[in-house]
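Journal club prep, notes for RB
We'll compare a predicted complex against what the paper describes. Inputs for the cobalt (II) ion case:
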Amino acid sequence: MTIRPIQRIIDALPTPDGAGVKLRRSLGSSQFARLDPFLMLDEFSSDNPDDYIAGFPAHPHRGFETVTYLLDGHMLHEDHLGNRGDLKTGAVQWMTAGRGIIHSEMPQQLQGRLRGFQLWINLPAKEKMKPAGYRDINPAEIPVAALTGGGRAKVIAGTLETADAAVPGPVQGLSTDPLYLDIELPAGARFSQALGAARNAFLYVFEGNATVADQALANHHAAILGAGDAVEVLAGDAGARFLLLAAKPINEPVVQYGPFVMNTREEIEQALRDYQAGKLTHA
Ligand code: CO
């Protein structure tokens, strides 16, 4: 079994988004900092309402999926389809923008900590114009597996495959076959996971620090993993908490303009025309 080495480390850069929400953006901080099919990973984490209270008022998306994972706090999603998603601590929202969605994501708290992630996963050309879809995943639907080396893994998408367990998460069967794990390890614990060579993979550390295939990975950094068929992580002195994400690459051209991600410039121009004409979400 070949352990996947770190191929590239991406520092999470402070970035404002929405109506002034302070974020740390690792993947997606430039067009050169993507990992097919992952387009972007934002971490938001603050105890100061000024950093988050303005939220993300109504805005469009086309051509990909957004996955919001709330670690602490309370947010409300509303969209043009009439969905209302009340996201509380530990919940996930899996939204497929497809041909178009217009939604808002607003904090439902005036104080306290708001912390979580938004991940953007691309869709292949044949799925970019499919109808929008939406799923709320309650914390109770997300399995928590104890790890033999110590610590635990929450399985949001795909299947955790360790030496002695296969634990499927609630999200399965997508064409990019995503794996989305939230892993917490005590100091010195070792985690390994089989990961077939067909999937691209990266880690994002958000508490403590870790060593990945003998290379140090500090807090608030993403590590894109190279070729191999297993991931191995050793937690640092203060333990480590990280996301492990993997998915099958789409291998198509990516043209992004803000919240629209298509294959060609012409398709982006069409998305802008559709949005301006109020037809983004229409069949
Ligand atoms: Co959005």
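Talking point for the session: Helices lie at 265-276.
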